[in-house]
Amino acid sequence: MSPVRLIGLNGEQIGIIPIKEAQQRARDASLDLVEVSANSRPPVCRIMDYGKYKYEQSKKARQAKKKQHTVELKSMRYRPKIDEHDFQFKTRHVREFLMQGSKVKVFVMFSGREMAHTEYGHKLLKRLVEELEDISTVGQEPKMEGRRLNMILTPKLQAIKSKKKRSENAEDKDEPVGSQAVQENGHG
């Protein structure tokens, strides 16, 4: 008979006892004998309701997963000869993605003879970084992969939080003024 160090139902140390006696104590309490640490000498066992223990562990795992923030990787494609309006439009979308907390993969697609002038793509990405420097940092420097010039922008979480607070405060200040004006006129 090999001895085990037994821990009771409430976490109290019972002591080192033979394994048969530990199993009998668990049976008497209508609970399970669970080996907690097999590597220690003697092995450590605990009297517990194993089903309840497994349920609580899965519940903790679900809670941890719920609190976990997953970062999405959004992407936006540019062309080297992009029009000013299109550039502003796409940049506005990239800004929205960053404000939501997502990383953004920005790439410039080259076709045909445009490959001879990849510096236009570099200039475009540099301009984009300058436009979005208030809320983002460059996560991956621009690099060529085939016919694409790729770069990853990551959001600056502090800057995004402060911008959101400012916009919420501005909205809060606007609402009461508007509702008071309607009530004073008697149209509300």
Mean pLDDT: 84
Report low-confidence residues grouped into runs of 5 or more.
177-182
Strand content: 25-35%
**Extended strand count:** 8
Shape: elongated
The CATH H-level superfamily of the largest domain is: Translation initiation factor 3 (IF-3), C-terminal domain
Q: Write the CATH fold name of the largest domain.
A: Translation Initiation Factor IF3
Question: Would you mind describing this structure in some detail?
Answer:
The model is unreliable at 177-182 (pLDDT under 50). The strands form two sheets. Strands 2-1-4-3 form a four-stranded mixed sheet. The chain has 188 residues and is of the alpha/beta class. 46% of the residues lie in helices and 28% in strands. The chain has five helices and eight strands. It folds into two domains: 3-49, Translation initiation factor 3 (IF-3), N-terminal domain (Ubiquitin-like (UB roll), Roll); 73-161, Translation Initiation Factor IF3 (2-Layer Sandwich), CATH 3.30.110.
Could you give a quick summary of the protein structure above?
With 188 residues, the chain is an alpha/beta fold. It has helices at 19-28, 50-67, 84-99, 119-131, 157-185; strands spanning 3-7, 13-18, 32-37, 44-48, 73-78, 103-109, 136-145, 148-155.
Write a concise keyword list for the protein shown above:
single chain; 188 residues; alpha/beta; Ubiquitin-like (UB roll); Translation Initiation Factor IF3; 4-stranded mixed β-sheet; 5 helices; 8 strands; elongated
